Amino acid sequence: MKWLSLITAVSILVILFILAYALVALGISGPPAPIGLRMLGEKYLYYMINQYHPFLSAGCPEGVSAILWDYRGLDTLYETMVLFAAIIGAVLVYRVYLYESSRRGERIFGLSLIVRVVSRIVIWLTLITALALGLTGQLTPGGGFVGGAAFAVIPVLLILVYTAGYAEKLGFTKEKALLLRTLALISLLVLIITPYLFGGYIFQNQPKPGAANVFFPPRFIDQTPLGGSIFFLNLIEVFAVAGAFTLSFILLAIVAGVRERGDENES
Q1: Which of 96, 132, 156, 212 would give a disulfide with 199, using CB separation of 3.0 to 4.6 Å?
Q2: How far is the C-alpha of 112 from the C-alpha of 110, rounded, in Å?
Q3: What is residue 219's three-state secondary structure?
Q4: 3-class SS of residue 225
Q5: Same domain for 112 and 207?
Q6: Are 18 and 99 found together in one domain?
């Protein structure tokens, strides 16, 4: 069987190599990537923060955030809604486990005292990092998704180091995580349609021709670039992603606990 597995693996690698070589040699994959910037990339970099072209500018010096939340904001919104739907699907799939876990007696687990002390420091550092990534996404690489994903590490540490019961006592419950995710998505929709209600466009960030003079402030009071609505969208996305990932991790912990008790009962 080992030889058969090895032959199968080698055969797959050879086939993939032949296909890749054929694609390049026959030109099926298209022309090679240009050495310089593509025209669209140049336009993004030129207009993303440009005071001489306010109608085309996103007011954001960080290119990724400008593209995600301004130039292709609808696509980002749809991705957020798809993730929300996936979380709802996970809740429905695991509803049996959730019911069983609600009737169980609490069991005490956890790692050593050294790990717990170290984790307390790591949790605060993780929180600071998550906030820094989420609140400065309009200035440096990061943004709401990355900040929310970093924040979700906190409940994972609590579950692994202190147990799911301890994380629940601190407020990291599946109900609160789902509520946080839902409120964040509603806030996201409200922020997106607010300019439209005042005569502008949905997802409007900076002034646009043909729209009312509706826009979000491009800078803080100290003149630090704010990116207009991008800062607020990143902030909301932090809570949306944090709630989604936290709920997923809690569900996995509950399922693992139910299965472990089932294995013990069988033995």
Answers
A1: 212
A2: 7
A3: strand
A4: strand
A5: yes
A6: no
